[in-house]
Structure prediction request, 358 residues.
Amino acid sequence: MGSAAEGAVSGVKQFKGQALSWELTNGVIELALHREPCNELGSITLGELEKFAAALADLERDAHALIIYSEMKSGFCAGADLRELYERSQAMEMSEAVRGVRDFLERIHHVLNVIDAAPLTTIAAVHGVTFGGGFELALACDLIIADKMARFCFPELRLGLIPGFGGIPRLKRDLGNAVVRDLLLTGRSFNASKAQQIGLVSQVVAEGEALRAARATAVQLGKFARQTAVTAKKFIKPIPYDELRQEIDLFCELFPRPAVQAGLKKFVESTDAQPYLP
Amino acid sequence: METAEKTLDEILALAAAHFKVPREKLTPDGDFFKALGIDSLQTLDLLTRLENHFHVELPDYELQGVTDFRTLAGKIQARL
Prediction:
């Protein structure tokens, strides 16, 4: 781990970690998520995402595109590691737990802001479960290409929380407010066709074909003048930094509430087939 | 317009084929979680397959408490 991390920061073209791997080939960086069961975003994944964000400054000199995808059968990413969050918060005073939550949020926001602003065209190739933090990771990308079995959801309100990894500001950036309200306030999950219909997903492809379609798109992107693409991206995809900061504050304000702790406990202990439903 | 019985039959056939359970083991009033042996992630997979097959949108909260194929078919039928 240590040597790989050092190498990554100094710009190696490959990295293999416990939760993710990346490789730069022919101008395309592929970031693969591979943490069982469904790439839950906890401290291990965050640490490796930070290594990736640090390495990106070097990698992007030789790249025009980034593809993020999952090697897990069940989906792209099920979101934050709620089990880790709950267990850590139970082991300490609430004020200390909130400080820990804030620190985690600031670190993941940094990573997602780096991906959002990267001078590359970024593509999330998603399938299966794309929930919560996983959905937020996809929203940081420029394009979302979805397998027809992809399913999206912001279930946080069902736990008494709001999305904390930049989901609300980035959804607001990309969608009309009425759609944002529907997705957030109902917390309902929806499929790839619906996601395309509301303008979130740029391509819906057959089951198992998202990565292939993303690679084909990345090849096409490589034919354009990179600086023009970077200029266009900067113009059409502003990063809502102020709202992102507000989101962290709101999340930390909500986190200590008894309803949240009860919601997390119920979720973590649930053996229900629909654990997100309160 | 599909009939309720046809919808139910298609659900049973789809579930049996995808989760590799003999069709005759699935009954309209049987508990599909138990019959298919599915967990929370597979339940979402089933929901998406049904939406794609019938070209409907099924909010997951409408399926809260639904455990048998017949009731599930009714929920789908109401959106066809």
